[in-house]
Fold this protein.
Amino acid sequence: MESGTGPPITPTYLRDDLTFLDHYFASVYNKLEADALLFNRQLPHAGLVGAENELALAALLRDFLPPRFGIEVSGIVIDRHGGQSRQCDIVIYDAQTFPKYLRKVFPVEIVYAIIEVKTSIGSTEAKAARDVLDSVFALDFPASLTPNLERQIEEGKILADPPAGVVFAYRSSAIAFETFADWFPFEMVLDGQRLYNTGRGPEIRTILVTCLDKGYISIGSTNLYVERRIPTAYKNAAARSFRSTLAGKTVLVDPAKTLFMFLEHLWHYLLDAKLHPGFDIASYLTVPMMSSLPAGGVAEMPSDWYMKLETERPSETEER
């Protein structure tokens, strides 16, 4: 055979055989499907089904994300002025830098994102999810700062982002992708606290909406751009695909690819998200809570106590 000749190389996306990652994310999807849907069909109450679906997604996120990203199911986000969000299905928070001050309640400054989980989403469920996101966006997310940090803010050396709003649905009542997309307009990202552009760049609000049988929508406040995508099913995924339409044409949606792209988008957001280093839990406390009575702070030992300790300590030979 002449040098440089041989059978043509088939591009990966056209091959029938699957790579390891193809198999892996197909199995991840299958497990999520089994945990969240097949078992829950036997539950007698819709509220129980929804709760189990939240737990299934939370378990997947705990396996997927590094431990520094805490995952809490059914939490509330608060700000230092007394504002509080509606109950959030899942809260992703900083579990590494700050202690977990309150069970199920999280200061907005340490929250990366909140996720609303829907077993099946229609216009009513979409509005309910948006209401929860709006309640988080309304919170005052910049931390209460010391004069030094205030100066660094003014100089553009510190930048913080508000929590992202995420909606994750297993199924949709819509057939057309356009119907699903209309439930989540771009204007959502402009709701809530005003965002500012500092010397280091703009404060960024992010919204990510995913439905396994429709695709995903990513909205960012930076470039006034909305990304909408349908992860289509290739022939080796046709058996697990869902039928949808786009511009009146039928498309097959691959839920395993949709799940993979959701996790990828969430991961890249978390990598880039900026929490404020100036957060102090004292900014949430009232004067009575912070008050204390001095009970004496004078030195009660001789000033040369350490020298005496040194001279009186036995040598290693004496210790033996």
Observations:
- The longest strand covers residues 111-121.
- The two ends are 82 Å apart (CA to CA).
